[in-house]
Design brief:
With 171 residues, the chain is of the alpha+beta class. Helices cover 44% and strands 16% of the residues. Strands 5-3-4-6 form a 4-stranded antiparallel beta sheet, sandwiched between helices. The two termini are 39 Å apart. It binds zinc ion. The site of zinc ion (ZN) has 8 residues, from helix 1.
């Protein structure tokens, strides 16, 4: 973060962390920006808190800033992974595709351009590992080495259970 003068008027520290959505401190920031720990706009109270914390742990706040950047990168990757789903989509001929994607809407659009009308039956969280596990589970239904599967009773029953689960989560 490289704040510019006047960009922030209130402290960016989070308070009431036990709440689902913590509050932002919102006290006026210290006027001298050179005192903001790691360049984060903070109120005098939180600057003291941060300095005490760093002093107790013998933390160099500059080194801490580097570690925070790494944490952000790791968190971004985790969020990307968390957004991935394995989807079950049915083509007009009844065949069902089991694949994974980071964007269901983009993927459905691309598949519809290639395969025509497509019904999204269910999604579950997961990436390539979860996809592979399902491809193996429904190996008997699999059409060659494609990601398309015959709509057997056990596959449809499985998807139905997943779809019920989706609705329970959504309600
Ligand atoms: Zn504050």
């Amino acid at each position: 973060m490289i704040p510019r003068a006047g960009q922030y008027e209130t402290c960016v520290m989070l308070v009431n962390l036990q709440r689902a959505v913590p509050d932002v401190c919102e006290q006026d920031v210290a006027e001298d920006q050179s005192t903001w720990p790691m360049g984060h706009p903070m109120c005098p109270h939180h600057i003291r808190r941060m300095e005490d914390w760093a002093h107790r742990r013998h933390v160099d706040l500059t080194e801490q800033a580097r570690e925070q950047r790494i944490e952000v990168l790791v968190r971004e990757r985790e969020e990307r992974d968390a957004a991935r789903v394995v989807y079950f989509a049915r083509r007009a001929d009844g065949h069902i595709k089991i694949g994974f994607t980071g964007s269901v809407s983009d993927r459905m659009g691309a598949l519809r351009r290639e395969h025509g009308p497509l019904e999204l039956l269910a999604t579950i969280p997961g990436g390539p590992d979860v996809e592979r596990a399902h491809h193996e589970t429904f190996h008997a239904e699999r059409l060659g080495s494609s990601e398309w599967f015959l709509p057997s009773e056990r596959l449809l029953a499985y998807i139905e259970r997943l779809a019920d689960g989706d609705q329970e989560l959504a309600s």
